[in-house]
Amino acid sequence: MQDIWNQAKEKLREKVPDHSFRLWIEPLEIISQQGKEVSLACPSSFFKKWVGRHYLDLIEREVKNASGSPFRISLKLCDKNQQNGKVSMPIEEQLFLPHITERQYMLSPLQNDFTFDQFVVGMGNNFAFNAALSLACADNRRHDPVYLLSKTGLGKSHLSQAVGNHVLKEDSAVRVCYVTAEEFTNAMIHALRNDKIEEFKEKYRRQCDVLLLEDVQFLTGKAKIQDELAYTLDALLEAKKKLIFTGTYLPGDIPKMDEKLSSLLSAGVISNIETPDHNTRVAILKKKASVKGIDIPEDVINYLAGQLSQNVRQLESGLIGVAAKASLLNLPIDTKLAESVAKNIVRHSREVTTQRIQKLLCKYYKLTMEELVSKSRKRTIARPRQIGMYLARRYTDQSLQSIGRCFNRYHATTLHAIGVVERLIQGNGPVQKQVEFLSDKVESGNI
């Protein structure tokens, strides 16, 4: 039977993408055979569930082709016998204890629904999904850091937190640290001001088993923070800890990024998450409708998937909007209702352009368009310009290069301006109030 299984594996290798084969098929081993039933060993309950859902039919088909007769394939939870390298007898599925909160003082809260099961896999995110899952399932001997790259709203945070949730489900004693680059920065500044920098270093370098670091582009221009993070990543990599990063730009494209830190962030698997195609958008809507308990007809789902194509957040907004309008007005959920909701979402996204944001800035800051896009560095002109770049990045789909051209600036300058505003709006100062006021104008359509 082993020869048949080896032949089937070789055929599976040809039909399954290489990274998926190595992750899901290669670890499977025969543990028993009774007549026409063959049992294969799975290392975890999640592994067993995933293989059963996605590969079991294909496995049975290839085993039949290799043997000339059908076999029933069953999946069993098993562990490895480290002494002789053989598979031990199947183990019982174990119920996991709730997360132990006292061991997780380092965590920003992980969202419970950000799991691999809840993530919809499509052509544009398949590699990113497998890279994140491979990291989550890897043992301490073999794993590379993962860098997830995409625009906002496409699932970076979901996959990052799914790694943390999966690791904690498997072993609630693992020290998982989920932190944004902004939170890391603020924590270090707090440590420096309160003479607790050694405690800070201890926390992130030696009391962290899994580091989930989000939005690394926030680190632009922060030399001291970048130095400390580089030392931290060096220590964690040396200790074979699991690392996953997310960002909207490649590390090498972030201006004023330390070369060593950029190299560390780029050292592992870099995976881009693309805008979902139509079939993936349909699957996302169905998944979210099921989770939220929304009964929505197939034709409405297809209509929303066709109209709302920017990102996952836009899809969710459309789904919630349709359900809310139907409930409030006591109307049936049909394509007519979906059209009224989607039309507003699409119109709003099209109405907000960098040019209209510029006009809004000129109106409230009493500037001319020539002054706004000039080379002037006067604070009364430079600050509105920076705020304009921030709003354009937040409310339009334009690239940094496109936004920069609108303001007569390079993309690196644009990214720096966005970072400046992101820092300033953290406090309760005048810039925070100005951005809040202008954001209200943009979101209400008064531009």
Give the SSE map.
Elements: H1 2-15, H2 18-25, E1 29-34, E2 37-42, H3 45-54, H4 56-67, E3 72-77, H5 126-137, E4 146-149, H6 156-170, E5 176-180, H7 181-193, H8 197-205, E6 210-214, H9 223-238, E7 242-247, H10 259-265, E8 269-272, H11 278-292, H12 298-307, H13 312-329, H14 335-351, H15 354-365, H16 369-372, H17 379-395, H18 400-406, H19 411-424, H20 430-444
Task: For this entry, give a set of tags.
GMP Synthetase, Chain A, domain 3; 8 strands; 5-stranded parallel sheet; Helicase, Ruva Protein, domain 3; 447 residues; alpha/beta; single chain; 4 domains; 3-stranded mixed sheet; Rossmann fold; globular
Q: What's the CATH C level of the largest domain? A: Alpha Beta
Q: How many domains make up the coordinates?
A: 4
For the largest sheet, list the strands in their spatial order. Answer: 5-6-7-4-8
The proportion of residues forming helix, as a percent range, comes to 40-55%
Biggest sheet architecture: 5 strands, parallel
Structure description:
- With 447 residues, the chain is of the alpha/beta class.
- It has 4 domains: 2-77, 2-Layer Sandwich (GMP Synthetase, Chain A, domain 3); 102-272, P-loop containing nucleotide triphosphate hydrolases (Rossmann fold, 3-Layer(aba) Sandwich), CATH 3.40.50.300; 278-351, Helicase, Ruva Protein, domain 3 (Orthogonal Bundle); 354-444, Chromosomal Replication Initiator Protein Dnaa, Chain: A.
- Helices cover 55% and strands 9% of the residues.
- It is built from 20 helices and 8 strands.
- It has helices spanning 2-15, 18-25, 45-54, 56-67, 126-137, 156-170, 181-193, 197-205, 223-238, 259-265, 278-292, 298-307, 312-329, 335-351, 354-365, 369-372, 379-395, 400-406, 411-424, 430-444; strands spanning 29-34, 37-42, 72-77, 146-149, 176-180, 210-214, 242-247, 269-272.
- It has a 5-stranded parallel β-sheet with strand order 5-6-7-4-8, with helices on both faces. It has a 3-stranded mixed β-sheet with strand order 1-2-3.
- Helix 11 (278-292) packs across helix 13 (312-329) and helix 12 runs parallel beside helix 14 (335-351).
- It is globular.
- It starts with a helix and ends with a helix.
